[in-house]
Amino acid sequence: MSKIILIAFIFTSLSVGAQMIESEVKTMIENANEEKLVGESSRFLQENFFHFANMVTDKLLKYNNKNGNYNYRKGYILLEMNMDPEQALNHLLIASKDVKVNYDIYSPSEKSAPIDVYYHMGICYHRLGNLDKALEYYQKFIAESNKQSNLIAPAKIRVAQVANAKKVLQNPMFPAPVAMGGEVNTSYDELNPMISGDGKSLLVSSTRNRKDNLSKNSVEPMFNELPADIYQQTKNNQNEWSSLELFLMNDPKIDERLASLSMDERKLTYSSWNVSAFSSSEFVDGQFNAPKTIKVAVDNGKSKVDPFNMHFNVSADGKTAYFVSNAIPVKVDGIFLCQKTLMETGLPAKTFLWSIPFPMKLHLMFLWMVKPCTSQVIQQKASVVLTFLNPIRTKTECGQNLKTLVIQPTPFQMTSHSA
After folding, report:
1. What's the sign of the alpha-carbon dihedral 140, 145, 150, 153?
2. Residues of 205-218 as b/e, b for ≥16 C-beta within 10 angstroms?
3. At a CB cut-off of 8 Å and minimum separation 6, what does 355 contact?
4. What's the angle, vertex CA 51, arms to CA 86 and CA 325, rounded to 5?
């Protein structure tokens, strides 16, 4: 599950004071009537608390498991939580039997689904690899929806993705991917993997349960997810992967998502969804030491909320860093590429006039900095390529959003810098 915020229920975010905890939600569900549950489900969806919305919607489905409104909510929630698209599709198929234009999410008497159900059915088929069905429902949504819908733009992008995917599948450019061995590719989020130049060591951030269980009280309530920790697994001479080992520098309360690893594999940086600064850790005396903070300042306009800053990479000379941010320095929503001179102290980062605009507010994308793995490749390719991709699960969803941008004539690598 990646924390991709809001793709269907587009609301203005409202503060409701102290957020409920799971035990309080369970008590509310036990004591509330159906009308009250509809309101609470809608409120949780509005605030992106999908785990709580899922709990409430499960109770609503016990009242009426054929209700189009309830099945639409369930299917949408499963998609947002990056759960089984086939299960989501089963609910959306039921919902699609009763669709109307004037859908009222807050009405207790609403038994229909909105036109948006076709868009989400398209996503389900897309993720399941049924491109013809995906195209059918994207086009059906575009044809029948309100032309002011916030989902029109992403639906058109996905139509282009399907067309591109069909071309790629007819003439594949790369061998079919093979799943890695070891203790990865589980039901937990495994994020930002990095592999060593010799292919024998893998670093990855994972939201799996820690063996010491120290992160159990730091569950992120929106998606019911534990903070990510950084792990490593290695390959032996028999080509077998070891079990994942937790880095000692991990803080069980902090969401640590790998950002970059130095070419000598002695320094790593990571970012977090709830901290705007970056952190770096160096390999000393056989282990990565306590992290140091790398503070960055980005113009976030009039917003009082700290921006998400991600994917911190340092130039070869150690003087300049590049990262991405969802700050709003101009009147455009998007992810912006930022540059920071590490020799400067207290000065804000420069924001390039290049960004990934969003078709809707709060819909986040990631940008990956891609660097060569060996010194030979570095010498041959004197440029830096940035690759960004819509945060999606399957190869058939890639297509149109994969782009590259050359930034400077020197390769990236992590070198010594002042934290």
Report:
1. positive
2. bbbbebeeeebeee
3. 332, 334, 335, 336, 337
4. 95
Rounded to the nearest integer, the mean pLDDT of the chain is 74
* Residue 371 burial (C-beta neighbours within 10 Å; 0-12, 13-18, 19+): buried
Report in angstroms the alpha-carbon separations of 127 from 133, 189, 350: 11, 17, 37
Residue 202 has pLDDT above 80, yes or no: yes
Q: Which residues pair with 310 in a beta bridge?
A: 324
Give me the sign of the Cα torsion angle 80, 15, 337, 9.
positive
Query: How high is the pLDDT of residue 339?
Result: 63
Please choose, from the candidates 142, 166, 154, 90, the residue with its C-alpha nearest in 3D space to the C-alpha of residue 121. 90
DSSP state of 412: B
Rounded Cα distance, 200 and 233, in Å: 8
Through-space distance between the first and last CA atoms of the chain, rounded to whole angstroms: 31
Residues 6+ apart with CB under 8 A from 97: 68
In angstroms, the CA 273 to CA 307 distance is 9
Do 227 and 252 contact (CB within 8 A), yes or no?
Answer: yes
In whole angstroms, what is the distance from residue 303 CA to residue 419 CA? 26
143: enclosing H helix or E strand = helix 131-144
